[in-house]
Write a structure and sequence with these properties.
The chain is an alpha+beta fold. It has one domain (10-150): START domain (Alpha-D-Glucose-1,6-Bisphosphate, Chain A, domain 4, 2-Layer Sandwich), CATH 3.30.530.20. The chain is 24% helix and 39% strand. The chain has four helices and seven strands, in the order βααββββββαα. The longest helix has 12 residues, at 139-150. The N and C termini lie far apart (34 Å).
Length: 152
């Protein structure tokens, strides 16, 4: 199943001095994934395969909120895309997507993190996109780079 990258997407990227295969090792279990992707929110469940569930939680306004969804693309050493929606009250009518893409570059890997699919929200798309664009930084990708490059 392909997921089209939308115009309203949040993109963060980083170069890691290691092969895509080495970087991908940090995607192969919940513990390894949580060490870098659980930065700023908690990775409560991660099933590393097509159809596997990803569940995260974060504190919003003093209460713990859960979000996540199934993995819809799992291409080893290349891409993982998962659906992303809030659980319970406040869920969007349709999910957004998280994509992590690995591309060989020079002797290393260009890693991109995308939050996309905002257009699916119709009239609320622009406000949701702006909120995520201003809130996301590089902390997840910097943590991934630190883990990978320290073990090289």
């Amino acid at each position: 199943m392909g997921v089209e990258m939308s115009l309203l997407s949040v993109r963060r990227s980083i170069f890691i001095n290691a092969s895509p295969e080495r970087v991908w090792k940090e995607f192969d279990s919940q513990n390894r994934m949580a060490a870098w992707f659980g930065t700023g929110h908690t990775l409560d469940r991660f099933e590393p395969y097509l159809g596997g569930q990803v569940e995260l939680s974060v504190e919003v306004g003093g209460e713990r909120r859960a979000f996540g969804g199934p993995i819809v693309i799992w291409e080893e050493a290349r891409e993982v895309t998962m659906e992303n929606n809030w659980k319970g009250d406040g869920a969007w009518p349709v999910p957004m997507f998280f994509t992590l893409r690995l591309t060989p570059l020079y002797e290393g890997t260009h890693v991109e993190l995308f939050l996309h699919g905002f257009e699916r929200l119709g009239a609320d798309a622009a406000d949701n996109h702006q909120g995520y664009e201003s809130a996301w930084d590089l902390r997840h990708l910097q943590a991934l780079r630190a883990i990978v490059e320290s073990s090289a």
